[in-house]
Amino acid sequence: MVPIGSKKVAGIAIKLALSESREEEKELKKLYQAEGITTAAVDYGGEFLSSVAKIIERAVVAAKREGVIKDTHAGEGAVAGATHDALTQIMPKSIGLNIGGKIGIARYCDHVSVAVFFGIGMIHLDEIAVGLAHRAVTQES
Questions:
Q1: DSSP 13-74
Q2: Is there a contact between 114 and 58 (Cβ–Cβ < 8 Å)?
Q3: What is the pLDDT of residues 78-118, one digit of tens each?
Q4: Are 9 and 134 spatial neighbours (Cβ–Cβ below 8 Å)?
Q5: pLDDT surpassing 80 at residue 2
Q6: In Å, how far from its chain's centre is CA 92?
Q7: Domains of the chain, earliest start first
C-alpha cells in the first residue's frame, strides 16, 4: 500500500474537481472516506475577478460542512489560502472572462489540498485550466 502523503491527497482533490456528476462525486467521497480521507467539492460559475472572494468562501464553507476542517482559524485559513493559491494559477487565463467548474478539497491528517477545474471563456469558446495548492495543518485544525 502506498503511504498517504501530499501527492496522493492532491491527486484526490483533482479527481473530485474533475468529477462530472453529483453521483460520481458521492462515490468518490465514499471510496476515500473508507481510507480515512475527508473530502468536499463545490461547483462554481461566474465572472472571474468579481468571484474570487465568493469562490474562497464557498470552498471554506464546503470544507467545514463536510468535516474536512474544523471551525478554527487555522483550518479556515489553510483552505482559504490554498484556494487563493490555486486561483492565482489560473488567473492569467481568466481575467475578464467567465469561469465555470468545480473545486475539489481533500484532507488526510495534516495534508490539505484544493484543486480548481474551470472552463474559462465566452459562449462555446472555452479554455480549460486547473489550479492546485497544498497546505499543512495540525490535527486540531
A1: HHHHHH--SHHHHHHHHHHHHTTT-EEEEEEEEEEHHHHHHHHHHHHHHHHHHTTSS-SSHH
A2: no
A3: 999 999 999 999 999 999 999 999 999 999 999 999 999 99
A4: yes
A5: no
A6: 19
A7: 6-136 (3.40.1510.10)
Label the pairing between strands 38-47 and 111-121. unpaired
What is the total residue count of the chain?
A: 141
- Paired residues of 118 in beta bridges: 101, 129
Closest by CA to 134, choosing from 82, 88, 90, 87, is 82
Residue 54, beta-bridge partner list: none
- The predicted-structure confidence for 28-63, as pLDDT tens digits, reads as follows 999 999 999 999 999 998 999 999 999 999 999 999
Residue whose entry in the numeric block shows the C-alpha cell 476542517: 69
Cβ 19 vs Cβ 28: under 8 Å = yes
CB neighbour class for 52 (10 Å; exposed up to 12, middle 13-18, buried from 19)? middle
Q: Which residues are registered as beta bridge partners of 41?
A: 104
Q: How is residue 137 annotated by DSSP?
A: -
The span from the CA of 105 to the CA of 112, in Å, is 7
Q: Which residue has the cell 490535527?
A: 139
